[in-house]
TrEMBL record:
<dbReference type="Pfam" id="PF00144">
    <property type="entry name" value="Beta-lactamase"/>
</dbReference>
<dbReference type="InterPro" id="IPR001466">
    <property type="entry name" value="Beta-lactam-related"/>
</dbReference>
<feature type="region of interest" description="Disordered">
    <location>
        <begin position="297"/>
        <end position="331"/>
    </location>
</feature>
<protein>
    <submittedName>
        <fullName>Penicillin-binding protein</fullName>
    </submittedName>
</protein>
<feature type="domain" description="Beta-lactamase-related">
    <location>
        <begin position="23"/>
        <end position="272"/>
    </location>
</feature>
<feature type="compositionally biased region" description="Low complexity">
    <location>
        <begin position="302"/>
        <end position="331"/>
    </location>
</feature>
<dbReference type="InterPro" id="IPR050491">
    <property type="entry name" value="AmpC-like"/>
</dbReference>
<dbReference type="InterPro" id="IPR012338">
    <property type="entry name" value="Beta-lactam/transpept-like"/>
</dbReference>
């Protein structure tokens, strides 16, 4: 616990240590009303790593999708793309999926209603040798185009919510194409439009910077490489950065003064409900699920949990009106 953090965080840190006795590193960020606490325990590697802290980077897996959604909303605010743009606007004709009826739009990709499968065709073949350690590493942009060309949506666009890593990874690729043309890189675009303006200095898609080492049953695992679909899960971040981002999402007006107007608009737009799911009370925003919740103290919690990479994180933002969590599924 750092000096100046609220007294109640002492008990949370003790509970954190007790709940994860076998973990090499665990980090937790909490917001209770005006108070914030960022807690960490353990070391960044199981054997001999540096002490874990608020700025220790973890692979955040599907939380990356929430940043991809912010990038989409920011580009919409700029007028560079529109939510109802068909994906064929940004794809070569030969790479377009086989569609019946209505086109797939960028909004469909961001709400998991595109009908695209969870994983791209061909991923199992390219990643079989490393399926439990680095399944996306050998799946290239060429493989992605070939996969799209033979993909047939499982449902008509806009008719069903079906989680799709392929869909959100494709969204990141299309946004990159729209901003900088074919062959451009997603990571610099995300940093320029979202991460740097928000001051998220520990957040990036870079796999070559220090981070917590992932483990599986006590054995080290390599960092994930996702060259063709980085917008689906290539992010790394810290508990401190995730809390800062969630603060901005919960109150866009309180985001740093240097945040551009387009990003401030995106922070509000990204959690605007787009779809209501009958009988559940759930609503789907851009990647985020919004669920009814009992009145509670406002609390925001990025923490380690069961996402895909062995060094992993998750986030949940709760208010008295609703709880918000990103849609998620492995890998």
């Amino acid at each position: 616990m750092s000096p100046g953090e609220p007294a109640w965080s002492v008990n949370l840190l003790a509970a954190l240590r007790a709940a994860a006795p076998g973990a090499s590193a665990v980090a937790l960020a909490v917001r209770r009303g005006p108070d914030h606490a960022v807690l960490a325990t353990g070391s960044a590697a199981l054997r001999g790593g540096a002490a874990a802290g608020p700025d220790t980077r973890f692979e955040i897996g599907s939380l990356t999708k929430t940043f991809t959604a912010l990038l989409l909303a920011e580009m919409v605010a700029r007028g560079e793309v529109a939510y109802d743009d068909p994906i064929t606007r940004f794809l070569p004709r030969a790479a377009a999926p086989h569609l019946r009826g209505a086109p797939i739009t960028l909004l469909h990709l961001a709400t998991h209603t595109s009908g695209l499968p969870r994983l791209p065709p061909g991923l199992l073949r390219s990643g079989a040798a490393h399926w439990f350690s680095n399944p996306y590493a050998a799946f290239s942009a060429t493989d992605l185009r070939a996969a799209l060309a033979r993909t047939r949506p499982r449902a008509a666009p806009g008719t069903r919510v079906r989680y799709s890593n392929l869909g959100v990874g494709l969204l990141g690729a299309l946004l990159t194409h729209a901003a900088h043309g074919p062959g451009a890189s997603f990571a610099p675009l995300l940093a320029d439009r979202v991460l740097d303006p928000l001051g998220l200095t520990s957040t990036s898609c870079a796999a070559d910077q220090p981070q917590a080492t992932g483990h599986w049953h006590g054995r080290e695992r390599p960092t994930w490489q996702i060259p063709a679909l980085p917008g689906a899960g290539a992010g790394r971040s810290s508990a401190r950065d995730l809390l800062s981002c969630l603060d901005a999402l919960l109150d866009p007006a309180a985001a740093p003064a240097a945040v551009p107007a387009t990003l401030r608009a995106a922070l509000a737009d990204v959690t605007t409900p787009r779809i209501a799911l009958p009988r559940t009370g759930r609503r789907i925003a851009l990647i985020w699920n919004i669920r009814p919740a009992r009145p509670t103290t406002s609390i925001t919690t990025p923490a380690v949990r069961g996402a895909s990479p062995p060094s992993r994180a998750s986030a949940r933002a709760s208010t008295w009106r609703s709880s918000r969590s990103p849609t998620r599924a492995p890998p």
